[in-house]
Amino acid sequence: MAIECTNPPGLHATPGYHHVTKVEADRLVFLAGQCPLRESGDLAEGGLAGQTDQVIQNILTALESAGARPEDVVRTVIYVVSSAREDLSAVWAQLNDSPLTPAFNTASTLLGVAQLGFPGQLVEVDVTAAL
């Protein structure tokens, strides 16, 4: 499997991700949006940071179950319930300072949204990997 990440001339500089990710792979892995729910189904405590920690753990578990690693991720979409740039930046920094760091080198989108699926949910991450 080959992953090629580029930032073509004519596009703005990025804070770590790449504008274009090209992949040659035998198999794609699509994770459902990973929520900050514990195995018990309870929402993780600790506000945005605590929920982001839980999402990181859930992504790592889901990737491992598919035989994938963070280095195999080719696309992420990060949803944060906030319109404050500081909250979005904090989640981006926390994700990039975690074992998932390689996943955010490829094509990535960070969005502030009004609401997510579970009451009290503040963050969710959609992940696609290639094997």
UniProtKB/TrEMBL annotation:
Gene3D superfamilies: RutC-like (3.30.1330.40). Pfam families: Ribonuc_L-PSP. CDD domains: YjgF_YER057c_UK114_family. Belongs to the RutC family. This is RidA family protein. It comes from Kribbella alba.
